[in-house]
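Box 3.1. Reading complex inputs
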Amino acid sequence: MSTLDIILQQLANGLILGSFYALVALGYTMVYGIIKLLNFAHGDLYMVGGFVGFLILSAISGLLGESWAAIVCSMVLSMLAVGLLGVIIQRVAYRPMLQAPRLSILITALAVSMILSNGVMAITDGEYLAFNTDLSFDGLDFGNVFISYTQLALVVSASLLMVILYLFVNKTLYGKAMRAIAIDQDACKLMGINVNRIIAMTFFIGSSLAAAAGVMAGVYYGSLHFSMGFVIGLKAFTAAVIGGIGSIPGAMLGGLVLGLLEAFGTQIPFVGSEWKDVFSFGLLILLLILKPTGILGKTEIERM
Amino acid sequence: MNASKNETVLELQDVETYYGKIHALRKVSCTVRKGEIVTLLGANGAGKSTTLRTISGLNRASKGSITFMGEDITGKQPHEIVELGLIHVPEGRRIFKGMTIQENLELGSFTLSDDSERQRRMNHVFEIFPILHERRNRDSAMLSGGEQQMLAMGRALMTRPKLLLLDEPSMGLAPFLVKEIMRIIIRLNKEGVTILLVEQNARVALQLASHGYVLETGKIVIKGDAETLRQDESIVKAYLGD
């Protein structure tokens, strides 16, 4: 393989991985932006999203097979279901803790994370589930570089979701209210904005994006496991911090940077892909030392 | 003034508010009638802002009642109170920095679903504050103090308020800007907006208001029409010294 081939192949791999990271990082960053909570359960919503998507796909495969139509259908339904789950978690676990010290709500988030992952573990007996699809193995063949249509479709769908989110946040009144809540909650109340409703909406959107990534990951890797949310939760958190936590474009950028870094990192001589986590978390440490606000983050005065 | 014969817009009866364990308001009662400008005077920490925050629902009254246009609003959520036409422009302006002027104004009309009406109201705000029109696509963080105050007031006007609570609109502004803001307050009042004005600058406030209340450590200690308050030695000493 020529150097150019390697670059192209890793670019493709990095973009796919980066899209997953970005989708999950968006929920992290949006929730942090409005209620300053690091939602440790967010990675688990990605995992639950994968499983819910699998259940729906199994249920409708009799009707639609395991074609693209069926996968898109189960992704959308999984997004709705997990979005709702996110709203319920927010209402039951986080909202009563909003006035409590910051540490209490962090611990609550850890508890929610454990409930979700152990719950799925109990249901699945801790087994891997094969996520079967009828998708063809065709793709774009550039000699040494091969990009499957599935990979292409995943990147396109992830990008589409991010474009929709971007338009929502910047062009609609509800999206603007979401940004305004991150700036000043009391002022929002004085504008007639029902702050609790916008917070619920933010959890819905963030959770459903994580679910979309979970279904995509199921399609991409072909299997699901209850622990799959843990590492991606950490990675998405890293991506959000790299981009500047609280910043929506930052989360997208941070996710892509992380995905590309891990893909290209595997090409360093004598360094295998098992080292990719080292690159991600190494970059996190470097960034926290050099520019703690992240690439697109704004300097803000921390009030604890 | 014939305003005093008009109907009551806002009435506070023996309102008490706590900040944690601090007893911030003690038996505060006051009345604002339709078409009036009423002022609430007092030193720093006397409870002026707390009174406004309690009216708009940001703080909860632990005792007493607040009535707006005949409806009991004690204990209502701030966003519900806004929908009734009572708008609070908070201390320090609290505009959404990082968002454009136009976006700030749009959020002011959050409760409105009709886009053409939103545009009409925005044009009205731009007519009152031409400077905001000129800079509508700029980040509001770039505005000067006076412009930020204008934006905060413009944003409140987007709701078409019946009653406007203004918390220290003159704070930190140069004298010519204070005059400009005063002129606008008078104009809004003539357009039919009733105003409850909190000021530390009593001289300015008593020029605008028909009558006023003086707060001291959470209690109303003096009330009367503006002319009487201007003549009152103790008020002159305490609040007109600067």
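In summary: Chain A has one domain: 10-228.
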